[in-house]
Amino acid sequence: MGKLIYAINTSLDGFVEDATGAFDWSVPDDEVHTFYNDMMRGVGTQLLGRRMYETMAVWETDPSFAEGPAIPADFAAAWQDSDKLLHSTTLTEPVTRRTRIVTAFDADRVRALKEASPDDLLVGGPGLAAHALRAGVVDEIRLVISPVTVGAGKPAFPVDLRLDLELVDERRFGNGTVHVAYRVRP
After folding, report:
1. pLDDT tens digits, one per residue of 71-82
2. CATH number for 61
3. How many CA atoms lie within 13 A of 81 on its CB side?
4. Which residues form the domain of 50?
């Protein structure tokens, strides 16, 4: 059975984008990018909202990633090697292979996917993750915290949700970025 993992980049003050929608402060160096590559290789299915999908689809639609430097090319290959369940009410056709569109989050569908999957599942984007967290289907949270505060923007977590967590992993990178992983306690 696969675990559903919410993995997200955040600023130290807990935002995934600043007040202008920018996230350039979270661009990974080679060491952090290699960490993402390794994490992505273990993912069988990604659950993505429309905005996260549109941001990430370039890993398949832009050939320069696959043809470029080894570390980004490795991530592009790993990203493409998973199924995508795109949650959107506006998109009717995916631009990537292995992608199916659904119009609404369904916790029972996610439970069935987890039960049937030998690999982990990844939920990307704080909006879709909020639905999964509220439904109690997220098993693990992985934060990659950049050494920056941005003051305001899009929060990584809904403000009206309490979660009890158990630290299961941590890692410090040379550029000051920190990864922490927590198991969500029932």
Report:
1. 999 999 999 999
2. 3.40.430.10
3. 16
4. 4-11+26-184
